[in-house]
Amino acid sequence: MTLYAEKIALELKVRPQQVAAVISLLDEGNTVPFISRYRKEMTGTLDEEQVRITAELLEKLRALDERRAAVLKSIEEQGKLTDELKSAIDAADNMTSLEDLYAPYKPKRRTRAMIAREKGLEPLAEVILRQARGDRAAEAIAEGYLNEQVTTVAEALQGARDIVAETISDNANVRQGVREKALKFSMLYAEKVEDAADEKRVYESYYQFEGRVDRLQPHQILAINRGEKEGILRVRVEVAEKDWRPVVETEFEANILSPMVDELMLAIEDAAERLLLPSIERDVRRELSEKADGHAINVFATNLRALLSIAPLAGHTVIGLDPGFRTGTKVAVVDPTGKLLDTGTIYPHEPQNKWAEAIDTLQDMINRHKVTLITIGNGTASRETEKLAAELTRNAPSVKYLIVNEAGASVYSASPLARAEFPDLDVSIRGAVSIARRAQDPLAELVKIDPKSIGVGLYQHDVDQTALSHSLDGVVESVVNQVGVDVNTASPALLTHVSGIGPKLAAGIVAYRDSNGVFKSREELKKVSGLGPKAFEQSAGFMRIRNGSNPLDASAIHPESYAVTLAVLERAGLTPASPLSERKTALEALTARTPPEKLAAEIGCGLPTLKDILEQLIRPGRDPREDTPTPILRTDVLKMEDLAVGFELKGTVRNVVDFGAFVDIGVKQDGLLHKSQIPFGTVLKVGDIIDVDIQKIEKERGRIGLGWVKK
């Protein structure tokens, strides 16, 4: 563990003791959210990202050591493990270096070199490699190695060269050196495959493309990979001779006085062309793809975190509209708690064009259910449906509308979760319910959907899906636990992501709630079948019970700290039931009399935990989403024709990508705020509300260029 802690600490620029504590906690079965929130004294207040990175690096280091052990065992069983080789393998600090060392000993399918060895030509190959001086010609030397299987000098020399070529290609120093040069200086070329169909000319930028690999952008690599996969592009990587040859010749030095010098040079050419460079090209492509994947996954994760962190619009009764043309627009009405009140289908658009009837239907729903918000999915027919909402809001000033990202709504509506929630509801209507609820609490609704189906990424279908799922699941877990979960209203999907819970316990909590009524205390959670001491320890602090028997259960204070909390309250002259209006003044007076460091020591508590307790006593169960801007609610619709260069508008950031941000400004097309327009140092997130102006309008291409407006 010490070695792991030192390596990870170096990467994170923290103390090894902090990392060692995290490793120990992880090995004891503690979750990342629990460690970062409730074990700050042990970790030296490492934040959640540092704890999560530690967990990921630990997994990689352990996988490396497992592979190292397997490699050592394999070579030892072959009887070829020397002290020098073992030392080199032990020192390998990444999987690539380890595999380079293993390459000469790795079991292979029958190769030309293997066949030559079987024919007894390895000693002749050794002669070529030694490059000893001598007067006899290569052919004469080779005659000494003829046998029943090798009957000609030419065959003998060819077989020996095959062995030498494989030896050169398998050499760890050669592979590492050539790979390093290739990753810096090689060129990637892409060209269009003749007769390949690219009707929308998606890959036109890469029909005749070349770029040095170390200068390629992640979105270029991902686009090229996709074009190649679709059979539209042909791709190759070229390593210049000046980059690979010196590396090889440094390791396998030719001697012009050796009769075998020409044989070595021929073997070097063969090794490079047939074995080494194709392998290095695969390595370069893999490395480029991994880096591009990592970047794309990070973009997706960042956008997903921002989307899940959008402030909920509480207190609204909502009509959700899932727009459509031929099959109609599906309608669902939900109350402020998300309970389904009403459903229907309207046909305001082509081919039925029942506009007036649709208006009457929706107006009736607004009146009967006292609707205050209309949400519209942003897919097909969304802007046409927006006109419908705008007309309704003109007649009802108290009603606003909002276009929401409907990505994944169809995935949810056909899922087992949706079937369990609404067994008697048509699949298409379930989508409208999801669209309605997304405004009320984006997090609670979006956790029901596979994160990969929420379209806020960059080439998300092309990247490593396992790595993507791992990253996105981590984001969902992080946000859910930062926000906290009301255990008496949360869906099984939301509870699943609570630290220490998972799907089975989530279902058990809901089943208990359905049978016994609302939970009155956190202690009651222990009665849920399967929720043992460890699960309770990991989860309790993240689950809120409002209006229960213990006021502290509504906060993020962990039950293990209740005794300390009561001691703090007592010293401040308060009780758990004291109103919030009294707490701030009393606690400030307490810390003025007794500095937090001294107070922590007196009550037997760590300073980080005490600070968290004091914050929670003043703002119990604070939702961090309260700090984010609420979505823009609209009452009228804009068309592209309404815009002119110079117009200033408020917009909502819908997606952040490498080259800028797409911003919803209230027209059908999102505008592009190019990265060159974003002030240096400004980091935009999905859901941010920003001021922009119109800089360019391309009606025929449906494109709007935006500029940044400083306020």
Number of helices: 29
Strand content: 5-15%
Shape by Cα distribution: globular
> What value does the Rg take, in angstroms?
33 Å
Give the CA-CA distance, first to last residue.
52 Å
**What is the makeup of the main sheet?**
5 strands, mixed
What can you see in these coordinates?
- By secondary structure, the protein is of the alpha/beta class.
- It has 29 helices and 15 strands.
- The longest helix has 48 residues, at 261-308.
- The chain is globular, with a radius of gyration of 33 Å.
Q: Could you outline the blueprint of secondary structure elements for this entry?
A:
Layout: H1 2-12, H2 16-27, H3 32-38, H4 40-43, H5 48-77, H6 83-91, H7 95-102, H8 112-118, H9 122-130, H10 138-143, H11 153-170, H12 172-185, E1 187-192, E2 208-212, H13 218-229, E3 233-238, H14 241-251, H15 261-308, E4 318-322, E5 329-334, E6 340-346, H16 355-369, E7 373-377, H17 382-395, E8 400-404, H18 409-413, H19 416-421, H20 427-440, H21 442-446, H22 465-483, E9 485-486, H23 492-496, H24 502-516, H25 533-539, E10 543-544, H26 562-571, H27 580-593, H28 596-603, H29 607-618, E11 648-657, E12 660-664, E13 671-674, E14 689-698, E15 703-708
Parallel strand pairs: 4-7, 7-8, 9-10, 13-15
Antiparallel strand pairs: 1-2, 1-3, 4-5, 5-6, 11-12, 11-14, 12-13, 14-15
